[in-house]
User: What shape does this take?
Amino acid sequence: MRGRRLAWLLVPGLVLLLAGFLIPSVIMIFAPPETAAAEVFARLGQMLTDPYDLAIIGRTLGLGLIVTIACVVLGFPTAYLLARSNSRWSGVLLAIAIFPLLLSSVVRTFGWLVVLGSQGALAQALVALGVVSEAPQLLYTPLAIVLGLLQLFLPLAIVACYSALAQVDASLDDAARGLGAGRARTFWTIVVPLSWPGVVVAATLVFAGSVTAYTTPYLLGGSRQRMLSTQLYTYSSTTIDWAAASSIAMVMTVLVFAVSAISSLIGRKARVE
Amino acid sequence: MSVRTTQTGTPAAQFRAVTQTFGDFTAVDAIDLDIPDGKLTTLLGPSGCGKTTSLRMLAGYLTPTSGTITIRGKDSTRTPPEKRNLGMVFQSYALFPHMSVADNVAYGLKLRKVNSAERTRRVTEALELVGLGHLAGSRPKKLSGGQQQRVAVARAIAIRPDLLLLDEPLSNLDARLRLQMRSEIRRIQSETGLSVVLVTHDQDEALEMSDQMVLMKDGRIQQQGAPHEVFAAPANHFVAEFLGYENFIPDGNGAELTVRPEHLVLTPEASPAATTGAVSLTATVLDVAYRGVDVLITVEAATPGGEMVRLLSDTRAAGAPDLRPGDRVSVQAPDAHLVRLPPKS
Amino acid sequence: MRSRRPVVASLAVLGYVVMIVPLVFIVITAFTSGSTLRFPPEGWSLRWFSEALAYKPFMTSLVSSLQLAVLSAVFALLLGVPVALAIHRGRLPGRSLLEGLFLSPLIVPELVVGLALYQQFMIGLNLDNLSTLLIGHTVLMFPYAVRVTGASLALMDPAVEDAARGLGASPLRTFFTVTLPLLRPGLFSAGLLSFITSFNNVPLSLLLQSRDFRTLPVTMLDYVQQNYTPIVASTSVLILAGTVVIAIIAERTVGFAKIFGGINT
Assistant: This one.
């Protein structure tokens, strides 16, 4: 079953890829329905100068960055503990960390509506404790979106960091300890330098996911905290502004490609070293 | 033959009633052990005997479930590894892949705030000692297994440790290199005068390298002493079998006699057999394996108690009797080489 | 051990709180007897579960979601396995480039793929939404099929295929009697991963919905926007339970962490 003849097996897959993905994507940019390509680029130019649109781009990038940092700050230590612990609970804890990856994002995000809603647990608790006199507005705030995205992408960050950490021989930690390095110093001089390519992967996945996620900004940000994704849906389904929708799609794609390119450059550098 | 004393002065480290359990499993069971100063001690035994667990407790990576470990007279039972000043060489070498050879060796010195000039001097000195001065700038990955091993040793001794600990250091090397590294490690030990503890499952390695060897099984120490003492007088069935005593002959009272294959003398039944020792049996040849230098002959013999036992004789090919399966032979073992073992517990 | 790494342990605990606590509140709220998402619940009952099971839009869209997930997983495997075979067994030039091309749908934002298909197929070609959804989901699941079955192929010793050929099996027979059976865990992993990913998908299913055919997550999203009742909580608990069942099946077969985390434990 080997040899060049097997190239024919690529054909059905290639047809799907071209017809169902690549060609429609390219046409979308240059020739949306009832719209000239020039209109799309004019709208794109406008988007990159208009303060309202720029604010949305800025919010998307800013929240994406915050979520990425938070995911790494929480995910890396969690993965480190899971990878280094030989307790019988570490398997269970790893499974609990992976499980949310299987669970619908609608379900996961809905949990925050229950927690953050005006009649929800957190608001009620704050009132009951006398911290605030009336239920604070927690939903439809940047904080709500950050929490929602953090919950959504933390499992991804943990898995990416875990995979990198699992490849770092645990006896390196022991060796550093034996040579006189305390836990903190071992962490910073051995563990982090050897597993940071995993951190780069984690950060890339989380950032790309955060700036394109729809469910969470939609449910937790609503119309008050518009992001690129919710805006794209509005343009394509409510106001039917194809030029605007295609422009956003372009911005999103460029963002994601740029981040992936930077990340693979960093990854290549790490491999060369 | 003069018997070397293995205990001189204060021990470098002491185990007192040290136990380590993992859940229901007792890895090390209340051992008492003195590691002599300035000598090479091997912990020897099959896998799961507790030797590596003992070493990791000594290094501080495991805290004993009970008992005390004293290093240089100081109770160190709960001291974390980074506060112990021991040099450990890991089975996998555990070289830091993101640092050069020199930086690996300098790592422990930097943590000890050794100034840069002194550090360079000691890194060079340690690398020279293991014969790798020319590879200081290389990355560990570019090195052969044997070279990596030497770097690991250099890194461990550069910090001038109170003890040098080696966990199965030779098991990842090929056979030829392993033999070479045995004498290399001995040389480093005698040049530095370090107290060394080496864990191994290879009895030849332990016999060749140790000043003191400690045989372990099921978390307990079976026997300890100088290699020639232990080799000549195994304390029980396990030690004898582990050191290559193949022949166990029940004496009819529950105890056993054991003799090494090279000391078992076979003579064809036809020729008159002079009775030379406590063991004199008649047997049938089962198998003859010619191996160039020597011949291995397996026989089945009847003991005085009426039991049938299989015995193995290892004779130099030059003077070996011409035997074939089915031949009747008489089996003898000289008293000087017979070891009486206590009944199996 | 915990106490000796206070910072690391606290961060990990915080991480688990963020991941788990919202789910706990969903479960609690699902059992309320009241008709709002108020916390703490006014009382306990199972009424929202029976309401969820009786609520037609949810049940219809659940069936739609399941159909779509099964079909697109099957299509993705049917198209993806040959590609994986060609990449790993054919001596083709530019192998890594080819692999990158076939994994490319993974890096383009799903919302963008959805928009492209919506514009070009549903608006442009007037294709019905079910077919468009099927194409879209298959495109998205396709990289998983290529990657996961490719990984099993890479681990498989090609000598066993050579051995079958040497014993007189034709290439096709070798594939069906040797390669495919050995590939089963990989096919199962890829299928399960595709099924779950398709079932949970929002961006594509949202853009390509129609009144007649929409998936459960999209219907729920729509419902949450209009109403504020615990029926979504009880439906979420049912989905949670179904997901747990799938996780258990995964663990009992190939291994849960291996399929969904790519982690060999």
Residues 83 and 166 of chain A are 6 Å apart (CA to CA). Chain A has one domain: 36-272.
